[in-house]
């Protein structure tokens, strides 16, 4: 026991108390230090708990040095300033390293004693075992961390739901546009805008496919093919502000699918329309399309005070070709004539196949009878160039009926007149040949 | 800078001016876990000869906690910027900056950024790197950071808040309770933990070697946080610095030996 401890005393009516015994064997440790932390006294309980000899501590060690290095920093930077300011420290958790190196969680309470001039003289500290409290603290912190994690998860879920509903709305809107026969270019632009809104992505592009476009994917970049992945019609690329989630990729694929189905349907529609209006053998406009073109040409001629010519061509001796060389050669003859006619007319003219071996050409804005006649001569000449039919060279020819109108005729009448003219030509040709 | 933004910076850092107007300026910057009141035994000695500037770093003392931005205060540079901003608002140049503990490095960063603003540095118990590195003794292992953070969080403010009504015995006076819990540990536990992490894991050894203003290094006897080897390292690597070993002990020579601390600073500034 160190000298200078208060002597045991007994108050009136009170049993004499062994203060030394109470001090040394109290259920908590007592440590007295100078203001700079140098230990001046400790009780037996503290020595027993920590395993140090009195001589190793008193006058030799500073209290902070008994703490783990991490706890020491907090003690020095947080607890001592608090003690300095308020004169006391209540129940702070810390950790002591015992003589055998084991750690011990402790709760510290300190008071600062000052001299008459208010200068700090010494610090008294009680040390109690805080293993339980620390366990409790850890549980508390664990619970707090778990609660925070759960809250963040819930917030994320709500955010995800919001994202999902935005994405679903975008898909529904795009589907509506697709069903409303929106042209592909408009639909692509709408798809890009919808993705931009739903993903809050700054950079959304729809560009032509190709291996280069796809190999750029990676990082925060998501690329989804529209159409066949091997040969995409277009590629939808998103540069997102954060790594795209797998749900976002599902969304992009759905968008790409909606767009692709609409584009594909539109292509099929176009194909059907083409088939309905064109001759499958030669690819030329068929009778109904030619009729339609003629109707428009006549209307325009009327409005603009121009002339329209119709030239009706009928191959001579076509039946004979079919009979002698076969249908295959006949088809070859028709395709050859179609190609030659298409190559001989102006861009504004329409060449069509009316059926069988009968072709028609509608010439808009023709100068007059003379120009129409020149056109007829040119067409006759181009048909008459030698052709190889199934390997056999043949010379073809056509009889041509020509009508010129200022537009005040209906298409049926015009074709009828042209037809008659053509027959006259054919008969004349036969008569001439005879 | 506008007047409003200027006064905002002064309130943000709870800036307090005293001493002689127009006299040489001395700025005292507190360390980790403390606030400007830690300078109370030192300040009176300078108030007769200097213009004295005291402030609290954001997240400490009576600073504006609302200004605390985790994303901004990820390094000591943000604190150095705050110092330079408030000196700018006050129109002060060529000041003597006394930085304790973590503020020593904040002073280094500020002086490197604007040497005209910070004319002299006093580094009191500072360390450029707390964690040991090959060929460098900082005094701590990286694993100590975990103990430190646990110790910080163990005494988080939630405890002091729950204790406040009991201690004060004034459940009907929430204003007093707020006062108590705000002055108890002075900082929000999360802010303290964040500041602790930033401070403990920083490495400003390269910045120290760039300092070009006169510097005084004060190292107390037996600083439990900064080993003497760190002061020697600073002296060796800081061009033209002076190293003075104080008789005062502990991490707070300005508390344990204020008159010696004042004398050493006076000799320099």
Walk me through what this model shows:
The complex is a heterodimer of chains A (434) and B (269). Chain A has 434 residues and is of the alpha+beta class. Chain A is 51% helix and 22% strand. Chain A has helices spanning 19-24, 44-50, 54-57, 69-86, 131-179, 184-199, 211-215, 246-277, 287-304, 318-325, 327-344, 369-384, 411-433, and strands spanning 29-33, 39-42, 88-97, 103-114, 120-129, 203-208, 221-226, 234-239, 308-315, 350-355, 358-364, 387-389, 392-394, 398-405. In chain A, the strands form 4 sheets. Chain A has a 5-stranded antiparallel beta sheet, sandwiched between helices. In chain A, a hairpin with a 5-residue loop joins strand 3 (88-97) and strand 4. The radius of gyration of chain A is 51 Å and the shape is rod-shaped. The N and C termini of chain A lie far apart (154 Å). Chain B is α/β, with parallel strands linked by helices. Chain B is built from 12 helices and 7 strands. Chain B has a 7-stranded mixed beta sheet, with helices on both faces. In chain B, helix 3 (76-90) packs across helix 4 (102-113). The interface between A and B is large, with 33 and 42 residues.
């Amino acid at each position: 026991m160190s000298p200078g401890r208060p002597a045991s005393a007994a108050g009136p009516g009170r049993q004499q108390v062994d203060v030394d015994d109470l001090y040394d064997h109290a259920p908590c440790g007592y440590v007295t230090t100078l203001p700079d932390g140098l230990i001046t006294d400790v009780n037996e309980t503290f020595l027993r708990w920590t395993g140090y000899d009195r001589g190793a501590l008193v006058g030799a060690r500073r209290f902070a040095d008994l703490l783990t290095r991490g706890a020491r920093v907090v003690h020095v930077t947080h607890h001592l300033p608090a003690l300095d300011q308020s004169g006391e420290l209540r129940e702070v958790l810390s950790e002591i390293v015992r003589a055998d190196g084991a750690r011990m969680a402790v709760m510290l309470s300190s008071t600062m004693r000052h001299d008459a001039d208010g200068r700090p003289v010494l610090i008294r500290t009680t040390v109690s075992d805080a293993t339980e409290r620390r366990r409790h603290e850890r549980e508390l912190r664990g619970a707090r961390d778990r609660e925070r994690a759960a809250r963040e998860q819930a917030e994320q879920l709500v955010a995800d739901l919001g994202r999902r509903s935005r994405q679903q709305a975008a898909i529904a809107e795009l589907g509506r546009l697709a069903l409303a026969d929106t042209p592909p270019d408009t639909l692509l632009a709408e798809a890009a805008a919808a993705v931009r809104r739903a993903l809050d992505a700054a950079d959304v592009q729809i560009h032509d496919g190709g291996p280069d476009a796809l190999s750029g994917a990676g990082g925060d970049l998501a690329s989804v093919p529209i159409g066949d992945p091997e040969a995409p019609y277009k590629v939808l690329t998103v540069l997102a502000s954060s790594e795209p989630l797998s749900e976002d990729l599902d969304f992009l694929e759905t968008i790409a699918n909606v767009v692709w189905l609409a584009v594909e349907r539109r292509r099929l529609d176009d194909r059907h329309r083409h088939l309905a209006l064109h001759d499958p053998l030669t690819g030329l406009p068929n009778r109904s399309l030619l009729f339609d073109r003629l109707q428009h040409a006549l209307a325009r001629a009327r409005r603009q005070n121009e002339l329209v010519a119709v030239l009706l061509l009928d191959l001579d001796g076509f039946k004979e070709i079919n009979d002698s060389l076969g249908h295959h050669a006949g088809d070859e003859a028709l395709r050859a004539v179609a190609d030659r006619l298409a190559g001989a007319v102006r861009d504004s003219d329409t060449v069509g196949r009316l059926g069988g071996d009968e072709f028609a050409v509608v010439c808009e804005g023709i100068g007059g009878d003379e120009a129409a006649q020149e056109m007829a001569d040119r067409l006759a000449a181009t048909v008459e160039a030698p052709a190889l039919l199934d390997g056999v060279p043949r010379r073809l020819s056509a009889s041509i009926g020509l009508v010129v109108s200022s537009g005040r005729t209906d298409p049926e009448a015009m074709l009828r007149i042209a037809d008659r003219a053509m027959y006259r030509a054919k008969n004349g040709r036969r008569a001439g040949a005879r | 800078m506008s007047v409003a933004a200027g006064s905002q910076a002064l309130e943000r850092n709870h800036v307090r001016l005293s001493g002689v107007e127009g006299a040489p300026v001395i700025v005292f910057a507190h360390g980790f876990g403390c606030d400007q009141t830690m300078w109370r035994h030192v300040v009176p000695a300078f108030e007769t000869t200097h213009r004295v500037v005291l402030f609290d770093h954001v997240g400490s003392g009576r600073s504006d906690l609302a200004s605390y931005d985790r994303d901004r205060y990820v390094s000591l540079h943000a604190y150095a910027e705050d110092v330079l901003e408030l000196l700018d608002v006050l129109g002060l140049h060529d000041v003597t900056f006394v930085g304790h503990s973590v503020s020593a490095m904040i002073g280094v960063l500020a002086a490197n950024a604007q040497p005209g603003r910070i004319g002299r540095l006093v580094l009191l118990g500072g360390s450029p790197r707390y964690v040991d590195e090959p060929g460098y003794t900082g005094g701590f292992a990286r694993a100590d950071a975990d103990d430190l953070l646990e110790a910080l969080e163990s005494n988080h403010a939630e405890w002091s808040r729950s204790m406040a009504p009991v201690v004060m015995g004034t459940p009907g006076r929430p204003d007093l309770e707020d006062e108590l819990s705000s002055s108890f540990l002075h900082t929000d536990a999360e802010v303290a933990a964040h500041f602790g992490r930033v401070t403990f894991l920083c490495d400003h050894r390269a910045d120290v070697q760039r300092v070009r203003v006169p510097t005084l290094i004060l190292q107390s006897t037996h600083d439990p946080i900064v080993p003497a080897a760190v002061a020697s390292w600073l002296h060796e690597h800081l061009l033209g610095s002076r190293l003075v070993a104080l008789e005062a002990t502990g991490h707070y020579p300005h508390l344990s030996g204020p008159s010696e601390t004042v004398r050493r600073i006076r000799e320099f500034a």
